[in-house]
Design a protein that fits this description.
The two termini are 35 Å apart. Helix content is 48%, strand content 12%. The protein has 13 helices and 7 strands. By secondary structure, the protein is α/β, with parallel strands linked by helices. It has a single domain, classed as 3-Layer(aba) Sandwich (Rossmann fold). The relative contact order is 0.20. The strands form 2 sheets. Strands 2-3-1-4-5 form a 5-stranded parallel β-sheet, sandwiched between helices. The protein has a two-stranded antiparallel ribbon with strand order 6-7. Helix 3 packs across helix 6, helix 6 packs across helix 7 and helix 7 runs parallel beside helix 9.
Length: 307
């Protein structure tokens, strides 16, 4: 049976961590966080699971490794990283999305996606869940999974105002999954704008090519988290009764711990977590940067704001 997967796609600092945390609270759903971070930062560099253990030592992830590959030691990380470099990059998006794809592209994408399919299937077995959530975000990975993997994929495309993303990407945010106290990557407003355009357009095109997609904005999600989560439940074909939704209200969520990878510091928060719109960019993003980002992203920004 094909594993059922909800892939959260979008740009960094767009609310993907919040979204996967809320989805992971639902019965029958297991959220793995950003699975794309498993191979290098997780296994190779020794980052932490949200349970506090090294990913390579976490009981949950060790069992996934056993079922998927016969143990993490049996996985050729160098081959995985080599394969990733040949297909899971922005420069390969045109080849992945165009109508006629070469045999070489198909073979690389299918081989790469098969690693993820094995992780998803193993996670469902270990957790006993029916649906797995991957918040890896990247459009190139979504293309590989949506077109070539033997999985039942649902793409949730979340979009945040480009100016909010640009401001967030200039801030140094401590990574809670790194033993050495590293920070999340930063980017200039110019680079963020270009990435925002490319990633969102690619995810939109992927939906037009037949991948089941639900698009929403971060701002609308924060305005009505309960209503939007119900929409996602219906989109994913989940059966969730009202008592199971009591962890969420219009202004806060009560979150349990889990076993996820990557994401901003919110991925490790438990208990009552406030839900409020992060629009500090309106007063903190320099006027010159705000005008630059607005000009570069205006056509899409205007269209998505109407959605």
């Amino acid at each position: 049976m094909q594993p059922r997967v909800i892939f959260v796609g979008g740009v960094s600092r767009s609310g993907t961590t919040l979204l996967h945390r809320l989805l992971g609270q639902l019965p029958g759903v297991v959220s793995l966080g950003e699975v794309s971070n498993l191979w290098e930062t997780g296994l190779k560099n020794g980052d932490l699971c949200t349970c506090g253990e090294l990913i390579s030592s976490c009981v949950f992830w060790k069992e996934i490794g056993e079922r998927a590959f016969g143990g993490w030691g049996a996985l050729d990380l160098h081959e995985m990283e080599r394969l990733r470099g040949t297909i899971d990059r922005v420069r390969f998006l045109p080849a992945l999305l165009k109508g006629k794809r070469s045999d070489a592209v198909q073979q690389k994408a299918a081989a790469y996606a098969s690693y993820y399919a094995k992780i998803y299937a193993a996670a469902l077995e270990v957790s006993g869940a029916r649906v797995v959530v991957d918040s890896s975000k990247r459009a190139s990975l979504a293309c590989c999974l949506g077109m070539y993997a033997d999985i039942d994929l649902k793409l949730v495309h979340i979009i945040r105002d480009s100016r909010g993303v640009a401001y967030s990407c200039t801030k140094h945010v401590l990574r809670v999954d790194s033993v050495g106290g590293a920070t999340l990557g930063t980017a200039s407003p110019m680079d963020t704008s270009l990435n925002w355009i490319v990633q969102n357009l690619a995810l939109e095109i992927l939906g037009r090519k037949g991948v089941s997609t639900h698009m929403l904005t971060y701002e609308r999600f924060i305005d009505d988290p309960v209503g939007l989560l119900r929409e996602l439940i219906s989109f994913a074909g989940l059966s969730v009764d009202e008592p199971a939704m009591r962890f969420l209200s219009d202004d806060h969520a009560v979150l349990d711990t889990g076993h996820s990878i990557g994401g901003n510091p919110m991925r490790a928060q438990t208990g009552r977590v406030s839900l409020r719109l992060d629009d500090v960019w309106r007063t903190h993003l320099p006027r010159s940067d705000r005008l630059l980002v607005s000009a570069l992203t205006y056509p899409l920004l205007r269209r998505y704001a109407r959605g």
